[in-house]
Amino acid sequence: MFPALKLTGVVSLTLSVSFIASPQQSAASDSRPSRLEVTECEGVNNCVNWTFINKGGKMRGIASWESGEEAGEEAVLEVDTLSGNEITISRTDVKGPKQGQTVTYTGKLHGKQVGGEYSSEFNGHNDSGNWYWVFSKDDSGAVR
């Protein structure tokens, strides 16, 4: 369904302005790419590749950690909100030592960069911090 992704370190995100659009848009009029790859980073050296697929106007994705503390972990992603320069992404870990963990990422577009805060919950423990996307590649292969 989705290709395996490799862990690259810090959570970061870069989006082009054309990616920011209403999630209710139909796929036919949607200006977002059909496929988007980003490297998301939390802190300095906790990064992972995320791959999103645009189906029916909804951006859904997967993350897979290949090494480090979270090796073997997989998560599903969904873009919940794309409004103006704001984005909200939900993550649910579906495999690995933190299966069941939920994370919400909120961020703002600043030029071609996106950054913001995340909050997570796992086994009654809550955590929060900063996140960002460092690069993106769409279905055309263009790095944004």
Topology:
Layout: E1 13-14, E2 35-42, E3 46-55, E4 58-64, E5 74-83, E6 86-95, E7 102-110, E8 113-122, E9 125-138
Can you characterise this structure?
The protein contains no helices and nine strands. It is globular, with a radius of gyration of 14 Å. It is mostly beta strands. Helices cover 0% and strands 56% of the residues. An eight-stranded antiparallel barrel has the order 2-3-4-5-6-7-8-9. It has strands spanning 13-14, 35-42, 46-55, 58-64, 74-83, 86-95, 102-110, 113-122, 125-138. It has a single domain (13-135), classed as Lipocalin (Beta Barrel), CATH 2.40.128.
Proportion of beta-strand residues: over 45%
Report the biggest beta sheet as strand number plus sense, adding barrel if it closes.
8 strands, antiparallel, barrel
- Counting structural domains, the number is 1
Q: Given the structure, what is the number of helices?
A: 0
Shape: globular
CATH architectural group: Beta Barrel
| CATH-defined fold name | Lipocalin
| Strand line-up in the sheet with most strands | 2-3-4-5-6-7-8-9
Radius of gyration equals 14 Å
Mind telling me the CATH class? Answer: Mainly Beta
Indicate the structural class: mainly beta
In percent, how helical is the residue content? under 10%
Which regions contain 5 or more consecutive residues with pLDDT less than 50? 1-29
Report the mean per-residue pLDDT as an integer. 76
- Kindly, what is the distance between the CA atoms of the first and last residues, rounded to a whole number of angstroms? 25 Å
What is the number of E strands? 9
Give the helices and strands as they follow along the chain: EEEEEEEEE
